[in-house]
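User: Here's a protein and a ligand (heme C). What would the complex look like?
Assistant: Let me lay out the input and then the predicted complex.
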Amino acid sequence: MKKFLLFFALSIFFFACGGDSAKDSSSSNAPKPKSMVADEPADDGKGIGEITHVDLNDPLDAAMVEKGKGIYEMKCAACHKLTDQRVVGPGWKGVTKIRKPEWIMNMITNADVMLEKDPAAQELLKECLVRMPNQNISIEDARAVLEFMFQNDAG
Ligand code: HEC
């Protein structure tokens, strides 16, 4: 009986301890510099969402670029420039070089969850202080915007 109580007490202790340290590590994530966040083992850089693999076109698909440009002008240009200048959100110049295509498409189609859970998206939110809205962009449309981003970075 004594043994059982001891075991019981210990398991509560460990449980509580585990809970606390989990909390600690997530709150101490906040002030970490970018470089450390990128090292987090669970983060494969592809972001969180439906998109786990993107096949890229080489050369770029001109029709997709054109479609993506239209979507950009209608739904994104208010907050994103094509240079590296930040307006509401970061400028898109170079985005295809610093992010994986899967990450970009997850950010477009699943912004809410990305801002909640993805370390790189959370870093951006800290810089921009505005939450990118989820605009119900279909995966096909997001893929066209991605093609347009590659064009923007190529030229
Ligand atoms: C209301 C302003 C707003 C609109 C409209 C908007 N975004 Fe954003 N976007 C942001 C902000 C702000 C961020 C930075 C993350 C944050 O703070 O939410 C961001 C981040 C991003 C990023 C990550 C950029 C990087 O440097 O890693 C991508 C990609 C992106 N947006 C794509 C889009 C696309 C595609 C559209 C149009 C379909 C769009 N955004 C429309 C505000 C906006």
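Summary: Residues 5-28 have pLDDT under 50 and may be disordered.
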